[in-house]
Fold:
Amino acid sequence: MKPLLFLPPPNIVPESMSDLEKFTHSKDDIPPLIKIALIHAQSETIHPFLDGNGRVGRLLITFYLYWKGILSRPLLYLSFYLKKHRNEYYDWLMKVRLKGDWEGWLKFFLKGVIEVSQEAAKTAKEIVELKETLIKRLIKKRIASNYAVGLIELIFSLPKLITSMDVQDKLSIRSKDTVNKLLKKFLETGILKEISGKKRYKKYLFSDYLEIIKRGTEI
Structure:
């Protein structure tokens, strides 16, 4: 891969992308975190698309690390760090292009990986603690049936919005009345919130979970 100093003219973009692809798939001794930092900077410099280069480039970081087995799931949200430090991020990319300051860029990038990883670990711990708290709440309220515990598992897997149809289907509950009674108990205990305001086709939100996970995704 030939390092680019600035945005290439359109006629050499295909060649530059081909070089980048070969570098991405090449077998070498470069640690994956270092290599994806190089790939990302080069991708942003080539700028092959009319729109969406930043989004694609940031997604590439997560998917590459998942592909290489560094992540067990594609959940490292480095976009938040890069957006949070947007000006510094652009400055380092320009320093790479104009001065070849790869070392400074790598330090900035790896600092972001550390910061986001620590935040992800903290988030995971809070989610586990939330789940334990809710199960204890169900036991205290004497509603810890198999269906109730099953619904706890379900709302952690479908945290945004859930409907009675989701509950009936995923938990294999035959009776709609049983589903409605179960959802009513979850509303009364404050686990779920009804947000549609409708009498039929109601939608429920697991807001406590969302408050935890959105912390690392919004500026």
Notes: Strands lie at 161-163, 193-194, 203-205.
